Please model this.
Amino acid sequence: MLQRIRKEPQQYRLPLASNLAVSAGEVAVEAETLQEIANLLVEELRSNPGRDENLALTNLAEFAFYRHISVSLDTAPYRAELARLGDQASKRATADFILTETKGRRWHLKDLRGKVVLVNFWATWCAPCQREMTGFQTMYNRFADEGLLILAVTGEDVALVERYLARHPLTFCVLLDPRDVIRKQFLVDGLPHSVLYNREGKIVAQIPGPLTEQQLLDTLGQAGLK
Model:
């Protein structure tokens, strides 16, 4: 796909590369591929300064900020995008919630110090979310005894969620967020989106979009789970 985009007329390459970057946020993509997409976006931004750049700059900033992809760009608009993401991350760092599990138990985020906590915003209709749940279950089976908690937060109706869980059982916690109040508090626009806390209650990773199992394992390693 990248080579095909490079063969397109110049006026089409940047929009096509930006759309490819958006698509990469909807499926689990290895870091090497994300790096190649980032390199292509930078090439095209330099070849087309000021043209169709807003989406490309957002994509690049998210790749760099959240996925730690190397971006060889240093322009004022790009730095502004990074600053915007940094401001959102700072607001998430102070966010808290008390939510009820489908089984009735109430969970208070700030009471979970001493645990590694992965908060995942998802929905039953979200295909990337559904695929990611398999990896979450694998990691929970592996690390639950070492203190991993997975809190899967959805704004959907409890009856709908329970029907989904009857078909796709999960042993970690599924929390109900009526009217998506907490999702909005965490400034989450797209699904899935995960936030990982270490045992001190500090955010160590924020991940928009789905992860492969290896990427999820690497992410949990940032909170000390190996």
Remarks:
- Residues 96-221 form a domain with the Glutaredoxin fold (CATH 3.40.30.10).
- The CA atoms of residues 220 and 226 lie 7 Å apart.
- The mean pLDDT is 93.
- The two ends are 34 Å apart (CA to CA).
